[in-house]
Amino acid sequence: MVNKSSKIVKFRRIGVLTVFAVYFLILVGGIVRSTGSGMGCPDWPKCFGSWVPPTNVNQLPEDYLEVYKEKRIAKNQKLAGYLETAGFDKVAAYIFSHPSQYLETEFNVTKTWIEYLNRLVGVAIGILIFLTVLQAVPFLKSDPAVFYLSFISFILVGIEGWLGSIVVSTNLLPVTITIHMALALVLVALLQYAVVRAEERQNTATLPASSKIKWMLWAVLLVTFGQILLGTQIREEIDIIAFTLGNAQRDKWIENLGTDFYIHRSFSIVVVAMHLYLAYLLYKLKDARINRWTNIMLAMIAAEVIFGIILSYFAMPPVVQPLHLTFAALLFGVQFMILIIYYYASKKAVNRSVAFV
Is the domain of 218 the same as that of 136? Predict the structure, then answer.
């Protein structure tokens, strides 16, 4: 018989490592975007047709720009055919009406290797999640949900990899990038839930059940999720503006953004107010563990506000862009952690009160 504490420790160890690896990948992805390295490798899964990318343009054929553009278009035609067959005619038409896929991307060794390292991190995460699934097998009898959550996460990584290939083939088509980010948040949430679930079912701590706290946790979590996706769309607008104006005119990027930016910036006031009210409710519980996570949540939201101000008023420094995205993802993760902990602790309290009746 597998020792319960032993299997939990082993699963937690690999699970926590995998969760942090996913957050690291989000950071690396932010660096890819802020440096304009998204098309550093114009093909997928290889990079310029090789498993190890070139270090000099002389290693590429003279007509490499046209070659890889044609390969992308051919792949998109195949994708569009599948979409049309499935009844998504408008989506298929949108792919070909968007000019991004017809742009040629010149070789830049720095951008190529940044994107290549991004892919290596993605592969490492795939391996880590596979190991997480293996460590979740002992839970099949005692708590099957832990195994299935881990297995779904592994499937989701495969989907993320496939979607990454679509992002490349469509030359960073805006819609695909937003979906890519949304799935990354779902992935990290599934992994966190699996890890915490494995532990919390053994934890005896209880908290008073409150529908107000429960609803506020869900509201803050969903609002943060929406703000992250809206921020991703703004980032897509910035990519287009940066391509048009160039880095020399970074100070003019903000003034060329559309209404999404102003909605995102203005609504952040509401988001901060919601976090403060949630923190007030959580502190009233007077639970040491909840207090620690609440402190982290407030530190995260404070950092996000500071990063947002710097981006808005200091010509969008490249180093701050990936930090803004990563801290937003971490904030989402912290909120979800509080939600899971509170859910199990309050559920135990309800069960105990029923048992005493």
Answer: no
CATH number, position 238: 1.20.120
* pLDDT digit string, tens, across residues 92-144: 666 666 655 556 677 888 989 998 998 899 899 999 999 999 999 999 988 89
CA–centroid distance for 242 within its chain: 23
The residue out of 152, 177, 202 marking a domain boundary is 202
**Burial letters for 61-75: b for 16+ Cβ neighbours within 10 Å, e otherwise?**
eeebbebbbeebbeb
337 contacts 53 by C-beta, under 8 angstroms = no
Give the integer Cα–Cα distance in Å for 345 and 335: 15
The full DSSP string for 85-127 is: HTT-HHHHHHHHHSGGGG------HHHHHHHHHHHHHHHHHHH
Measure the CA angle with vertex 252, ends 330 and 229; round to 5°: 30
Range of the domain at 194: 1-202
Q: Considering its fold, how many domains does the chain have in total?
A: 2
What's this model's pTM, rounded to 2 decimal places? 0.85
Instruction: Please write the tens of the pLDDT for every residue from 27-39.
Output: 888 888 778 777 7
Q: How far is CA 249 from CA 236, 310, 313, in A?
A: 17, 16, 14
Both 184 and 230 in one domain: the answer is: no
